[in-house]
């Protein structure tokens, strides 16, 4: 999931994966 965070933090923040969004926006 770290790839999504590093490449597209905004996309990860909107929430494709719950854990990804949590890491970007706790």
TrEMBL record:
Residues 1-26 are annotated as: Disordered. Residues 15-26 have a biased composition (Gly residues). It comes from the Bacteria. This is Cobalamin synthesis protein. The lineage of its organism: Bacteria, Bacillati, Bacillota, Bacilli, Lactobacillales.
